[in-house]
Structure of Sn-glycerol-3-phosphate ABC transporter ATP-binding protein UgpC:
Amino acid sequence: MSEITLRNVRKSYGKNEVVHGVDLDIATGEFIVILGPSGCGKSTLLRMVAGLEAITTGEIEIGGRVVNRLEPRERGCAMVFQNYALYPHMTVAKNIGYSLKIAGIPRAERDKRVQEVAKALGLEEFLERRPAQLSGGQRQRVAMGRAMIRAPKVFLYDEPLSNLDARLRVAMRVEIRKLHQRLSTTTLFVTHDQVEAMTLADRIVVMNKGVVEQVGTPAEVYQKPQTTYVAGFIGTPGMNLIDVTADPDKGVLVLSDGQQIAYDCAQWPDVGYGPVTAGFRAQAVRLEPGCISGKFDFSEELGSAKLVHGTFAGTALIAHVAGARTFTPGEPLCFAVDATDIHLFDADSGRRFNERVRDAPIPGRKAEAIDALIPKVA
Ligand SMILES: Nc1ncnc2c1ncn2[C@@H]1O[C@H](COP(=O)(O)OP(=O)(O)OP(=O)(O)O)[C@@H](O)[C@H]1O
């Protein structure tokens, strides 16, 4: 088994703590993407799992064994770096087979395994070339081949696609996913690119400033962001966020200029009267008289639709609009959003309020209802 467990893992450089106590359980065969902006500590976390960076406090287990004190080569992980780290003077075949040579595997066996890996990655025709004679995507595949050949328990990828152009990135994404489907090797993949994270991950770990903000499937982090940070970071574009005052008695959210948006107060039982942050996706906005009026600023053409940017009560908001309608700067604009598409977050902590799931039985009620159906014996 190759499950990975992180318990209260922290990392400090001198007095500066950059990873603030991360807990994570990764199942055997899972594809986990650690997603966050530059400097949030994601590479440091990956390097601690690999053993390339010492842990300041906490515990890391791989396959049920605490690896804190193990050398990188004793951990059963294979790492693929952004800059590929290939040996420039060696051919592709030698680069891929190098770790087997070091391990003393006989030549015939080595050649056989290199051939197998090269076939799996479509590198057979490049085996005698040197890295300088390859494209970026081909070099990346060699780096993956070098990691694969050791049949590691765990694959660790550190922004492996960042140096590739956009088309190649998409192609390599598909290859990495296919490879994972075939091998089912437990994988930790670090990226700052949320599209990469959404398309590759079984689960995403969203990091911000050394803290894990949310762990969830791509659908969970998109549909139920647990913090305003996740709401703003995930999605293209990120969720619209606006400061409002909740009035649960009237079932409205009041904007700073007095305009009101209706919300479902039964869905948000913990929201009291006072300041909250309201969020809604650009895709949930309709341009029709409804919730709020403001003015058009500019639009971004997406081909099949536009991202329409406007200002409402002093806040910049975005609508995803299909169709060919054109706009002029400054023209009045109305945004309508259904109450069920509104997400509410605590104004101070940025945490999502508890939500009552629609149509779910309220605890106790179902038992009462069933009770009522049973004829009473006199
Ligand atoms: N050797 C080091 N000494 C001191 N500080 C470091 C060292 N390595 C990293 N840091 C700091 O730790 C923090 C986290 O760095 P890390 O490389 O993990 O971020 P990241 O999320 O991977 O960012 P990027 O995407 O830019 O690589 C940063 O503030 C960085 O400056």
Observations:
- Residues 360-378 have pLDDT under 50 and may be disordered.
